[in-house]
## 1
Amino acid sequence: MREEPVMIFDGDCGFCTTSVRFAERVFGVRARVTPWQFADLTALGTTRERAEREVLWVERGRVYGGAQAVARLLIAAGPPWILAGLVLRIPPFRWVARGAYRLVAKNRHRLPGGTPACSLPAAPR
């Protein structure tokens, strides 16, 4: 039996939660979706520090983060999204996606659905 991919996000961040719900509705996420706060990160092969920093996609023992996690989500969603996911994996699109992801992640508290808590490190939340 093939193991289902896992998508890990920051459940304390309003923008992240809104984005994941959007992805579930529009792309039909084909993965177990869980906030990092409730995930066994060690068993999934990642760390709290990484999960605090970026969305993660765990599949077949590999962990993809940030823009590459989004690319994997799109690939798993199937047509017509698969093409966008494949494009995000190749340079120079991969580089642009990485920069865009970092910009959004850094400013997520200012975006729709975001709250001041989105900009805080996990410990003070």
Note: The radius of gyration is 14 Å.
## 2
Amino acid sequence: MSFIADKQTLEDLNILGKYKQHSVFNLFNKVKTVGGEKLLSEMFQSPLLNHEAINRRSAIFQYFQSKQITFPFSNEQFSRLENYLGSSSANNYLSTLLTLAQKKLLGAVIRDEEYQHIKTGLQQTIAILNSCKIFISQLEETREQQYPPFYDELLTVKNILNNPKLQWLATWQSTRQTSLQKTAKYDHLLRHTMRAPLTIVMNIFHQLDVYIAVAGLAQEKGFSHAHALPAGSNLFMAVELSHPCIEKAVANPVDFNQESNMIFLTGANMAGKSTFMKAFGINVYLAHMGFPVAAKEMKFSVREGLYSSINVPDNLDMGYSHFYAEVLRVKKVAEAVSKEKSLVIIFDELFKGTNVKDAYDATLAVTAAFSEYRNCLFIISTHIIEAGEVLQKEQDNIQLLYLPTIMNGTIPAYTYQLQPGISSDRHGMMIIENEGILELLK
């Protein structure tokens, strides 16, 4: 069982994508190794469902953030280690010796450089492994707790690098005159005998790369660490929640519980509704990954998934209009909600692809129906403020919030700060007039 976030939701919130501008993945992708980036990508594609697992990962990020440690290797350095240990090797020492002797002879006769490449790779790998050993010992010296987060992994690395078979690492001296026999002995040991445990060391250093990079970003951005609660408590509380990818984003409080599990959001165009909803959705997703969140404080009940409907495209190939695409999206979400899953649902401007009367009736009916599922959390935005007035009288679990517009004469300004109530802003024609569109057409 895994956390549900379908393609539409991931695209709405711009979660994934190394090459997508302003994606959340790119914000956190400050790692230095290829293996670290791969691990980070896997984490982004697999949010967690267990509150204990979420809090453990979060605690690791907090630990490394408190230490403010720098990852000691560049991508180039660590790639040398991975390439060397990942290359093929003979199954026994004699075969290794014979193979290297042949390569050395070829190097002398026809200037074949493969033997020198192996020797250089061996020397670089030994140097990096010694650096790994020093780094782990420094981490141990700085730990304040008896068993800090990530202690078991650090102990695993320490035990592998302290293996008696690797005792020679500390006294090894880099020299161009290393004999063929010693080169073969150490090459066979590292690339065959100790390959599996050294692969574990590399994997743990990939984890260190991710934890140190993400912790550093959290420190730089002033992010906090959300606390996960068991699924049944149906709670979400955030203080000063904002969009993590927007510099100096305006922050807002968000508070849900069993008796108040839906926000009905109104406000003018450009007042910030979509940005607020995306900020909420992104932080919900990050929190389920155990990652730092853009909030001063956050605690939440673990959910089973997240659905959004923000930028629903039409599908001309299938013959779908924009309105029908919206309807199909709402149907898909309704199917998931009706299965009694604990979900987070975000709808931005329901049914904007149809006429005002149908949009009013549909928004009112669908919102009222969804509000009966109190195991889920909903944010639904609309321009149809009349629907909010009816819902306020009929439903007791809906928070009516709006994002205001302040008029400076005929010029609108936006606070991006949530206010209780329903928006009464109707400034569309004023904005059109400010842009001089009607004058152009005279």
Note: The chain is about 50% helix and 15% strand.
## 3
Amino acid sequence: MTMEQAVELKNQGNSALKNNNFDKAIGLYTQAIELDPTQAVFYSNRAQAYIKTEAFGLAVEDGTKSIEADPNYTKGYYRRAVANAAILKYKEAIKDLKVVLVKAPGDKVAKQYHNEFVKILKQKKFEDAIRGEDTPSAMSQVDFNNPIVGKNPFKQNQLDITVTGTDGKTNEQHIEVNGITKDFIDEMIDIFKRGEKLPKKYAYALIIACNNLLKQEPSMVNISLPNMKKNGKNEVVLEGVDTLTVCGDTHGQFYDLLNIFETYGWVNDRHAYLFNGDFVDRGSWSTEVAFLLYALKLRYPHRLFLNRGNHETNDMNKVYGFEGECKAKYSETLYLMFSESFGSLPLATLIGNDYLVMHGGLFSDDNITLDDIRKINRFKATQPPKEGIEMELLWTDPQPMPGRTPNRRGIGIQFGPDVTEKFCVSNDLSGIIRSHEVRMEGYEKEHNDKLITVFSAPNYCDSQGNKGAIINFTVKNNGEFNLDCEQFEAVPHPDIKPMAYTTNFGL
């Protein structure tokens, strides 16, 4: 009877997985495993549910348990390969796919993924070999003296682009761009809605001009609304601003980004926004999202702020779609320029000297302070290191239990409420705001309400069914401020699937 009950729980888990109810599926598979821990399929199926929730480290563990339960069960190797590839461990993924192809030589999907991972690994080795300090900036390769080639979809608004100089070390161009008006941005949005692209000359100019602007900002930006109580180091007071809206991941969901602005208000002199990383990848309008945010940053440099996320990195862009999208819609040069500009994005923002906002989370060392974040030299390399506080700002996640544990993603750590409490006390903060994880309600208050996760990509990947959310800061008369979390639903978009510009790898 126990085996029959376990199989029934597995079947229910399969149904939940098919209906994208991943957490329910994980719970049902776990119950099945508790009744009968000898069945390879139970671990393999739970691994697939973990993959769908981006718990890749746990998926690797379940793939291993599936293989241990039955070394001839090929799906265990397959699941572990997909999970390892998701956290950029291509060598391990290739080893497992070779086993699959020995046991099932006719498996076309395994062969496709094997060949793709080998290709990615070779390309990465080649890029690492040719990349050096003397590698010219992609931003130095654009000739702005030539007229626009091909169709210019702009009818009413044009950009005036002037090269004002070059960087003596990288030969990167400094340019002045005039004409980024509200009307230009409105027309650009209409062009995107029609499925058309920017002229490459305009696209390149927006990236270079925004990169020049981002490079002037510190690694931790310090902003405050007028009359907020605390004063701090290098604080920029956003005079005249009534509301500061913090958004989490938008992940190339262009129509949901437009809905945020249409619902809560556009960036303007009285309304500032902070986007907390992961603008690109997954969704298939990542270039449109990036161009809209860059244009708004240029139009309102002290009203729109951008933090870097773990998906504003080359390794993630190769797997999750942004590189392929840039090449399909524009050119490899455009992707390389975006990649360079991502290296200029700040890593954190301090609001009112009271709330620290970063994409991932806190640190493996209790002694890290705000000054340590300020001192990060994010220009040493365009790609963040694989360890240390810069990586942790982009990758770590909270957990409900005290202390620290390895991250369920397979990268970085998880930190408990005691870690959050200690960091807030030692740095005189009221709380932490971070993103990086789907929350079914769009946001979640954790760690005795001292940590808030906000996620702004509703119905993530057209499959999760989650709400999106934003956080609004407004100041009271006494200098304290309101912090209000507001939710919204996904809106319709054209029939283009997520990750349309990359091989899905079962993710």
Note: The chain has two domains: 2-130, 149-356+426-488.
## 4
Amino acid sequence: MRALQVVTLTGPSDLVVNDVPEPTPGPADVLVEVHRVGVAFPDLLLSRGEYQMKPEPPFSLGVDVAGTVVSAPDGSGFEPGERVAAVGGWGGAQERVAIPAEFTFALPDALSYDEGAALPMNYLTAEFALHERGGLRAGETVLVHGAAGGLGTATIQVAKGMGARVIGVVSSEAKRQTATDAGADEVVLLEGFKDAVKEATGGAGVDLVADIVGGPAFLDSLRCLRRQGRLIVLGFASGLGIPEVKVNRLLLTNTDVRGAAWGEFAMSTPGYMQEQWARLVPMIESGAVRPPVGRLYELEDFGQALVDMDERRALGKLVVRVRD
């Protein structure tokens, strides 16, 4: 079968499509015929050997997949032919993949394979950040950085599904519409966002900041928080460095900075992903969650998709076609 592989840890330009043996599922695995693969930031890091998990080359990329069940263990709840989405550490960018049933989810009929591949990592990460780490409550206001990207649009939609007001921050006018279409109530530009947020909230500030990009905007994000506000650290997509905070600021303002490492928590907590999925399904059924899919790439162009994501040209979630 075809597989998109890392053979040298030299980045996206050196990815290759190879013929590899089909996987043999373990006793707790679902064997999935892959239709679509979502492009994720860990794929970029894996291609460079910079991720916390370091598989030995050659290995296949691919964190998010959507496809159909070929076989499933008894009692798993999955049947051959069923449409599913799934998530793993890597290995999904190939024609078939074996994934633990615990990390596999029934794909609602309302969603396409493209949308299914855009769901797992980003939306489960967003749900973890807002629900588990952020303690978001209906009626609160959330500020989302990187609001036009895959994780940003997911965070907007999950926050809206939880009953929040959402202000998106984007780096250019060209990205404003993507964040608006994802459901943001207001969208402001990164340049001068602190003052724009203060104006939008009548000077009160926001209850929660979801910071996906890091970099020099971090301090102004803290300044956007109201009393007992929470800033959730989700990543450093800007590439402009990892920010630091003087803890006396947190003391004086009664605010929090919290990390949200979904993968480490979810993959080591049995049953947690299924609990998260159960909370997302009503949001999907209500229409609050509908993943915006950006460009669709062929398997051979996975490397270009990673370059586009790395250079922040992505709008919504980038998806790779494995088969129709």
Note: The longest strand covers residues 29-38.
